[in-house]
Design brief:
- This is DUF423 domain-containing protein.
- The protein is mostly helical.
- It has four helices and three strands.
- It has a three-stranded antiparallel β-sheet.
- The protein is elongated and about 55 Å long.
Length: about 140
């Protein structure tokens, strides 16, 4: 037997007596990774240039900077919601809410790509959020 007493039930995994939803766990890990990516790359590619911009209105600049931090908090909260739901079967509603948020973020990204004729490669948020949403959807059917 595995040293951590792991037993698999489809995509539910029992580790040390706790049954976890592996899909939600994967969504939590992906969300945490994306949050880190947002902080590191977003800080370098979006936040720093925004703060350095001299042609922006003071209020507009700091409102955008504030919103950038709100996105950081929301992505971190998605990870926390999926992590909690991965080991609490009674918390599926929290994972459903997190899945809906990820899906809405993906759809909004696609809408911006279409509306403003952005490159899907240069505006990849849609792909990251759709992956979270798909993992969340899969976890809801286990």
């Amino acid at each position: 037997m595995h040293p951590y007493n792991t037993i698999r039930y489809g995509m539910r995994v029992e580790v040390r007596g706790v049954i976890m939803n592996a899909w939600f766990a994967a969504a939590a890990i992906l969300s945490a990774g994306i949050c880190g990516l947002h902080v590191v790359m977003g800080g370098r590619e979006a936040a720093r240039p925004l703060l350095a911009a001299s042609g922006l209105d003071h209020v507009a600049k700091f409102t955008n900077y504030y919103c950038w931090h709100l996105v950081t908090i929301v992505i971190g909260a998605l990870g926390a919601a999926f992590a909690y739901s991965s080991w609490q079967a009674s918390a599926v509603d929290i994972a459903q809410f997190a899945t809906a948020i990820a899906l809405l973020f993906a759809l909004w990204s696609v809408a911006m790509i279409v509306r403003f004729r952005l490159s899907p490669i240069q505006f990849p948020q849609w792909a990251l959020f759709i992956l979270i949403a798909l993992l969340g959807l899969a976890g809801n059917v286990v």
